[in-house]
What does this fold into?
Amino acid sequence: MAGQNNGSTSNTKETLTMSMKTGTSTSPTLEELKKDLFVAIEILNGYTESEALLNWKCVQGTCQCP
It folds into this structure.
């Protein structure tokens, strides 16, 4: 198993390499992690990603719903 790669590992390495080139940090903030977790839970509850993002904005009070 040590020689096997999965998609997430290679993506992480690619992101890390890109951030090292640009000099930016890839460490997400706590708010970004909360948002990602909220969106993931909403998707598991049957919403699309765009609906989940809109729900996040509404929960945060930043949506501009009609």
The helical segments are 7-22, 30-44, 49-60. The chain has a mean pLDDT of 79.
